[in-house]
Design brief:
about 300 residues; mainly alpha; about 0% strand
Length: about 300
């Protein structure tokens, strides 16, 4: 039985989590449809397209982000309160997933800590990726799903947990499938982490987990389908002309140099405190194996 001290401690953690979730939802009341942005375009898309035709048009003319586009198409048909509830749930899922990557079991206080760490990202990044409605579909949604599908990899590698086929496996495959058509940049990060996992397992001569092998395969297939999208090529031409004329003419070294400068600038200006906090958390929580901390 749970003694009184443990009950009070657990109740306090849950109460703190509920309080944070309510505050996050209330913070959403500051945001509405931004009429001079993509919000207005998605809001009116239903007047010109059925869902399937809309996704087909997007894939061939602008973007392979089929899942975020589908969610945007559907939610913009509803009152904004539905987006506020949905977006709050995504933020909670992101906090849950981050905490589970670090812990074998879900802990409410760990989720709260993860959500608070996210608050140290600059407001410009938070607004564009979390609280601008269109941005939340294109960035928060893939990040929350991406972190969630990484949980089994973390359990297997850091905690050597065995995974067997069950109802949870089906839910995982559904999440991986949807994630595989969400955001090519986030997908590339997750796929890279998954491939590193398989390489490490191979080097250590451990048994290959078929569930994680299938998950990685789904992500790889999704990445290829997104990469070959005609819409992505058209969007690249448009955005190159708008943001960086002549980018295609740069050598691989030149592109890498530009990318490294940009990444350093973004991290140092917008996310440095979060990176430091996550690094400290990683060093404290993970097992004392240098290579695991390094990864």
């Amino acid at each position: 039985m749970i003694n009184q001290k443990d009950f009070i401690k657990k109740s306090g953690s849950y109460l703190l989590l509920v309080t944070i979730v309510v505050l996050v939802y209330l913070f959403h009341l500051n945001f509405d449809i931004f009429e001079i942005s993509d919000d207005a375009w998605f809001k009116n898309a239903g007047e010109y397209f059925h869902l399937f035709d809309f996704l087909k048009w997007r894939y061939f003319h602008w973007s392979a982000r089929l899942f975020p586009d589908a969610v945007a198409y559907l939610i913009f048909k509803l009152p904004i309160v539905y987006w506020r509830v949905f977006n709050t749930a995504l933020i909670v899922l992101l906090g849950y997933s981050i905490s589970r990557i670090f812990n074998s079991k879900w802990k409410p206080f760990a989720s709260v800590s993860a959500l608070l760490i996210l608050g140290y990202i600059s407001y410009d990044v938070l607004y564009s990726g979390y609280f601008w409605i269109t941005g939340s579909f294109n960035y928060l949604l893939p990040m929350a799903l991406g972190m969630y599908v990484m949980i089994p990899y973390a359990d297997s590698y850091f905690r050597e947990t065995e995974h067997h086929f069950s109802i949870k496996t089906i839910l995982l495959f559904i999440a991986v499938f949807l994630f595989s058509f969400s955001n090519e940049q986030v997908l590339a990060c997750a796929l890279g982490a998954a491939l590193c996992y398989h390489i490490a397992i191979f080097i250590q001569k451990k048994k290959v987990n078929p569930i994680l092998l299938i998950s990685t395969g789904l992500m790889l297939i999704g990445f290829i389908i997104m990469y070959v999208s005609p819409g992505n090529k058209l969007r690249f031409v448009f955005e190159e002309a708008r943001y960086f004329p002549g980018f295609s003419s740069l050598s691989l070294l030149g592109r890498t140099k530009i990318g490294m400068f940009w990444m350093y600038q973004m991290i140092s200006q917008n996310m440095i405190v979060s990176v430091v906090l996550i690094t400290i958390l990683t060093l404290i929580i993970t097992k004392p194996s240098w290579y695991k901390k390094y990864l």
